[in-house]
Amino acid sequence: MKHSVAGIVRKNGLFFVARRIPSGEMGCHWEFPGGKVENDEAFQETLIREYKEEFGITVKVGSLIGEATFVHRGIEVRLHAYEVIFPEGELQFVLSEHTEVKWVTLKEIETLLFVDSDLLLLPYVSEWNKNN
Q1: H/E/C letters for each residue in 30-89?
Q2: What is the reported pTM?
Q3: Residue 90 — pLDDT band, cuts 50, 70, 90?
């Protein structure tokens, strides 16, 4: 089984999502940013690395929000969603793997062309959002 992580950033009731570049897998789809866990990397370390690589920012990782399993090209993948905390102040994103970012409600996510595996996380994100 492979492992991937997704970072859930919430601010004033809105969630941070990013649109993938057109080339590559799931091009132009929106997602909760994250990525594949490499070697013996801790899940939290993966998120810190991915946000640095994809947006040029250093984040903090909070608690586990939920997990979902899916099959990708015949391989079982476990997707772990964690709360991600952005640094304070105005952020300047350097987009390397996305064309745009925005803040949306959970309801709006349902209207976006969103990565299928990330949609599996919505019930957990919704529950976490209500309780935290």
Answers
A1: EECCEEECCCCCCHHHHHHHHHHHHHCCCCEEEEEEEEEEEEECCEEEEEEEEEEECCCC
A2: 0.94
A3: confident
pLDDT tens by residue, 11-31: 999 999 999 999 888 889 999
Scored b (16 or more CB within 10 A) or e, 46-82 reads: bbbebbeebbeeebebbeebbbbeeeeeeeebebbbb
The CATH classification of domain 2-131, taken from the options 3.40.50.300, 1.25.40.20, 3.90.79.10, 3.40.190.10: 3.90.79.10
Q: Is residue 50 within 8 Å of residue 126, measured between CB atoms?
A: no
| CA–CA dist 67, 6 (Å, integer) | 10
- Three-state secondary structure call for residue 131: helix
CA distance 109 to 60: 23
Place of tokens 């250093």: 58
